[in-house]
Write a structure and sequence with these properties.
This protein has four helices and eleven strands; from the N terminus they run ββααββββαβββαββ. It is of the alpha/beta class. A seven-stranded mixed beta sheet has the order 5-4-3-6-7-11-10. It has a four-stranded mixed beta sheet with strand order 1-2-9-8. It binds S-adenosylmethionine (SAM).
Length: 205
């Protein structure tokens, strides 16, 4: 399903958009690192031994190498795009699922839940946070990286340009819903030249 914006660029739904973009996503890694500065690692517990990690909307597993060779119990990738999930890692359990609806994961399952660069794609943000709370263990940590966008980002596939559906959730909306869902959270602001650009939310139950 798709529509057009004013300049006639196709706006694709998430699944089709990322299925088409997947083969090129690796080229995009540097761009994403420039945004999140790889700081999410700082919010991980020191001891990863025997931990269960869930990456909500993992993409192609951009951050997965951090967990390799650590003696973790289980590492679960969830994404709606089959092609994004294709990247093979022996130590990963992959679940293809649209996270706007109830997650196919049991209560109190994860020690660590991460969600980087994905909130903007969520339509049902209340469900997303409620479900993240449900799957997180009592002493677990949930790390969100969020940035606000006023426009859909433009992707390209060979010479075809397209955009992928995004929302414009602002920080206040996210924070209100974190509270509504009983999360305790700390904010780490990512600034450039003293101007706030992006935020990490480090959340617990
Ligand atoms: C910008 S990428 C971010 C991927 C990864 N977290 C990273 O930091 O590289 C967004 C990912 O979220 C997935 N996604 C977006 N909406 C989704 C949904 N409703 N359910 C499941 N996955 C979704 C897309 O397929 C895509 O792989």
């Amino acid at each position: 399903m798709w529509s057009y914006d004013k300049k006639q660029t196709e706006i694709l739904d998430i699944e089709e958009g990322y299925d088409r973009f997947a083969h090129d996503y690796k080229k995009h890694h540097k761009f994403l690192w420039d945004f999140d500065k790889n700081l999410w690692k700082r919010f991980m517990p020191k001891d990863l031994e025997w931990k269960v990690i869930v990456d909500l909307w993992c993409g192609d597993g951009r951050v997965s190498s951090f967990f390799a060779w650590k003696n973790i119990k289980e590492y679960v990738w969830v994404d709606v795009s089959e092609n994004m999930l294709k990247s093979t890692k022996a130590y990963v359990t992959k679940i293809k699922h649209d996270l706007n609806i109830k997650f196919p994961i049991q209560d109190n399952f994860a020690d660590i839940v991460i969600s980087l660069f994905t909130l903007l794609h969520v339509d049902n943000i209340q469900n997303f946070l409620e479900e993240s709370y449900r799957i997180l263990k009592e002493d677990g940590v949930f790390v969100i990286f969020h940035h606000t966008e006023r426009r859909n980002y433009k992707y390209s596939e060979w010479r075809n340009y397209f955009k992928i559906h995004t929302n414009t959730w602002n920080y206040k909306q996210v924070e209100e819903l974190l509270e509504y869902n009983f999360f305790k959270y700390k904010i780490y602001e990512v600034k450039e030249d003293w101007i706030l650009n992006w935020k990490y939310y480090v959340c617990s139950k």
